[in-house]
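batch_manifest entry 22 of 60
target: Inositol monophosphatase
source organism: Paenibacillus ferrarius
requested by: lab member K.T.
priority: normal
notes from requester: please return tokens only, no post-processing; we will run our own comparison against the previous entry in this batch. if the run fails, retry once and flag.
--- input ---
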Amino acid sequence: MDRDEWSLAKEVAGNAARKAGELAKERFGSKLTTHHKDERGDLVTEVDVEADRLIVEMIMAVFPTHRIYSEEAGESGAASDWVWHVDPLDGTNNFALGIPLYGVSISLSYQGRIIIGVVYDSVMGLNYAAVKGEGAWQEETRLEAKPQGDLTKSTLSWIQGHVVGKDDRKALDLRHHLEHSVKRVLRMWAPSLTWAMLARGDLHGIVLYNSEGEDLYAGLLLAREAGVKVTDFYGQPVSWLEDSAQDAGGSSQQGGSAASAKGNELEKGVYLVAAVPAYHEELLKIVQAGI
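--- output ---
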């Protein structure tokens, strides 16, 4: 794919995200059929399934040779270096509970590197898009994350994966440490919208604990292209955002977690610290003190 095809991919993703978001907004507050996807209680509704099908069909109609991983349908398409990740309704629990905080996340990667990310805020009707090396945008406005003030008086956000149990002592201790280190730590349960807030400069940072999935990649690129520095808990770069494995300093394809390389007791997973360069080192030190 050349740059013109990248632009086409961004357009397709944007249109698909908007249609899926509009579908969700139309059904918001109505009687829903819900069920639990697993023993942890993660919810899925018929809107998730319908929106998932809509997005996958729109992508496959234009890029039939690409691979797609979607939250509800799983894998589809042919084996390919070009891989889409789709979360058709990021924030399903919020949606099902009547909390107006949910969106759509779509990304395209080439050989494990994210090149296009689209996040759609379904309630506000706002489209966020990023192209690797070309910047991040909220509709027609270019995003530059420039938070102000002391980090200790700021608001951060905490994102954790569904695999993190209530008895995960390391997660509990780290979150408790963060809450005592800064003014406020948000938990929104809609990760893609959280990354959009960081890209806008509304948050001073994000700490992500053992979370990986279709709701991560688009927001990650959006924040990076808005000027945010993203590393693992040991300050190592994230391979998904680098040009090559060498550029990522040998970090893993699974997001660059250096836990096993450092001999730390954290098991292999995705653990990220994200903030603009002016605050990243300070936030990283707070996180390291908490683990």
